[in-house]
């Protein structure tokens, strides 16, 4: 095994380790307050779609597990989050179980190759605008308010760092242009949010 490959594997392990705690604070917060009034169900479902497609895309293409293990790890946390949000919004009913069954059936079809791989190739590029749009909205909110008091620069540093490590590990493992483009865009947007947050947190709002 080459030195570059060993370094890529180390970065993958670091990235995966960080992803183990990515959603934990939000999960603990929901359990603590027993309320989900401020959680966006649409946002969670968009994330769920993105993580599911990217997990299936990497798996069916036979890429190294270390190069995408964060997706299934985050998926498990996403399932818990969605369950808690549905629970605290009192929306666990027959319809939610039906939708869950449909989701897991479709996911299994994607992973088992029942759905043609070309479908995943068409779906995978859609994950980039879904992910990017959420970051753009956050960046615009900071710039318009000229305030970032409620934004954690550390969160966006971790996001930028883990995406940057993925650019390197994917380049070493497969050099998949689609995946590289996805992570490069995420690095740029996460970094922009981080630097904007640092800038406005260092410049408190002036009192009128």
TrEMBL record:
Annotated compartments = Membrane
- For this UniProt entry, what's an example GO CC term? membrane
Transmembrane spans? 6-28, 71-89, 96-116, 154-172, 178-200
| Superkingdom field | Eukaryota
Q: How does it sit in the membrane?
A: Multi-pass membrane protein
Task: Tell me which Gene3D superfamilies the record gives.
Answer: 1.20.1280.290
- What keywords were assigned to this record? Membrane, Transmembrane, Transmembrane helix
Q: Which InterPro entries match?
A: MannP-dilichol_defect-1, PQ-loop_rpt
Report whether Membrane shows up as a keyword of the record: yes
Q: Per its UniProt record, what PANTHER family does this chain match?
A: MANNOSE-P-DOLICHOL UTILIZATION DEFECT 1 LEC35 -RELATED, SOLUTE CARRIER FAMILY 66 MEMBER 3
Tell me the protein's name.
PQ-loop repeat-containing protein 3
Organism in which the protein naturally occurs = Acromyrmex echinatior
